[in-house]
Amino acid sequence: MNTNPMICDLKTGVCGPGGEDAVQMMDFNPQPQPQITLYYATDPICSHCWALEPVLNRFIHQYGQYFKIELLMGGLLAGWSGFADKANGISQPADVAGHWREVGEHSRMPIDGSLWLNDPVMSSYPPSRVFKVIQSRHPGQEHAFLRRAREAVFVFNRNIGTDEVLTEIVNSLGLPGEEIVQASGLEAAQDQLEADFQKAAQLGVRGFPTLILVNQENKGVKIVGARSLEQYVEALQQLVPEQLIPAALPGMAELLTEGQLLFSREIEAMYDIAQDDVESFTAAALPEHSYRTRHILGEMFVEPS
Fold first, then answer.
1. What is the layout of strands, in order, in the sheet containing 220-224?
2. 6: which of 27, 135, 148, 171 lies 20 to 30 Å off by Cα?
3. Please, what's the largest Cα pairwise distance for the chain?
4. Environment class of 86 (CB within 10 Å of its CB; exposed 0-12, middle 13-18, buried 19+)
């Protein structure tokens, strides 16, 4: 009995023995699936998290193929009753304004901060609960919500602790704002938020921003505070046996389609260019009528036209 499998060759049309390699292991994945989880413990009103955006965005765009991201809301401000941040001299809303301005000036990610003097955020839990509702009902959209909430509070001085502002932000994503904000006031949303607090505590989070990279063997690297791109890459390399290969940088047109504003500092960090070269770089990278540049708080930003 002939046990040699017979096949008809697709290229030649000739039929005959399949040969010894007729049974082969195949990998149909277009690329290796990420084996590492990046936990990012953050908060909608964390100023140092806003300052980290340029570096973190580049890290994700170039090395995101090696990990999946899980954002954890950290609960920075439950309320002002009994709150005190002695390290930064903060015990009341007005104290935050100066701290935010310092972070903005140092990082060059624009921060106004004067809302702390006239319309302060009373708790970071409302936007965090909205984040959790979007995460559960519209997975993937929570990242865009968090970015727009940060633009609103840091740059445009809007109180993201109010239902009105939160509804407007959610609507801008094409989602049902009133419905989602209403759901964020229910006990289920608070339970989801508490689960994030517990997970962050289990990971040893003590402040924001904190990034924890964890592999399948449950071994990880924790990076506390806003760090350089090189430090995040070095941390990731500790968990990846082969040499890391960065993905190609996205074009500016691709970044604009993500729906966020592009601040000068972000463009500089993404493309390794000097501040003075941002406008000419942008003009060369984007079609003439596809964008417009504006300035706020002494910083330029790009938005779709």
1. 67-73, 36-42, 210-214, 220-224
2. 27
3. 90
4. exposed
Dump pLDDT digits (tens) for 86-112.
677 788 999 999 999 999 999 999 999
Q: Are 267 and 301 in contact (CB under 8 A)?
A: no
Q: Rounded to whole angstroms, how far apart are CA atoms 132 and 184?
A: 8
Tokens 């417009």: give the residue. Answer: 292
3-state SS, residue 303: strand
Residue carrying the six token digits 């010894």: 20
Judge whether 18 and 5 are in contact, CB under 8 Å: yes
Q: How many residues does the chain have?
A: 305
CA distances from 66 to 52, 71, 224 (A): 20, 16, 20
Cis (ω within 30 of 0) for the bond into 54? no
Q: What confidence category does residue 13 fall into, taking pLDDT thresholds of 50, 70 and 90? A: very low
By the 8 A CB rule, do 128 and 181 touch? Answer: no
C-beta separation of 164 from 189 below 8 A: no
Domains of the chain: 36-202 (3.40.30.10), 252-304 (1.10.10)
Q: Which residues of 126-142 are buried (b: 16+ CB within 10 A; e: fewer)?
A: bbbbbbbbbbeebeebb
Compute the distance between CA of residue 303 and CA of residue 293 in angstroms, rounded to an integer. 6
Give pLDDT tens digits for 241-287.
Answer: 999 999 999 999 999 988 889 999 999 999 999 999 999 999 999 99
Contact between residue 209 and residue 42 where contact means Cβ atoms under 8 Å apart: yes
Cross-strand bridge partners of residue 73: 42
